Amino acid sequence: MKTVLLQVGKTVNKHFIAGINDYAERISHYMPFDIVTIPELKNTKNLTEEQQKQSEGELILKQLQPSDTVVLLDEHGKEYRSIEFASWLEQKRNVARRLVFVIGGPYGFSPAVYQRANEQLSLSKMTFSHQMIRLTFTEQIYRACTIIKGEPYHHE
At what angle are helices 130-149 and 14-27 packed, to 10 degrees? Predict the structure, then answer.
């Protein structure tokens, strides 16, 4: 199974970039993993939040293949403990050809993206910046990989 992290807008904080790249490299030792970045929209001052979500949504949908299992990182999604997420990920690895996690823009997802998604996942009831969640989530994917392999990275 190939795993993809699809994100809207590039990561700008150099510390986050370094951490994300480190975890992405570690993840690639366990499974094929790519990060795909959709460029941020230009001239958004003239767009409403809904128009911005719709435009970003169209760009997100263009990146998806019909057979993809699509999981939105969304505040209303299901929450897992790390051990539970590892079990969930292992199950997906047995059935999905390509698992795509999507981090949307600052206003969330368009109705069309919600409709295309197979699931929604929340990392916390707290709100994090879209920049920070990229680092947090790549770490959680890595953590899940080590849990699946029984390696000592995660402690109960």
Answer: 20
Q: How far apart are CA 101 and CA 108, in angstroms?
A: 14
Give CA–CA dist 156/74, Å, rounded.
Answer: 26
- pLDDT tens digits, 108-136: 999 999 999 999 999 998 888 888 999 99
- How far does Cα 131 stand from its chain's mean position? 12
SS3 5: strand
Identify the H or E element spanning 95. helix 82-95
Write out pLDDT tens, residues 132-150.
999 999 999 999 999 999 9
Angle 53-12-29 (CA atoms, 0-180°, nearest 5)? Answer: 95
Task: Tell me which amino acid residue 128 is.
Answer: F
Tallying the residues shown for the chain, one arrives at 156
CA 44 to chain CA mean position, Å: 23
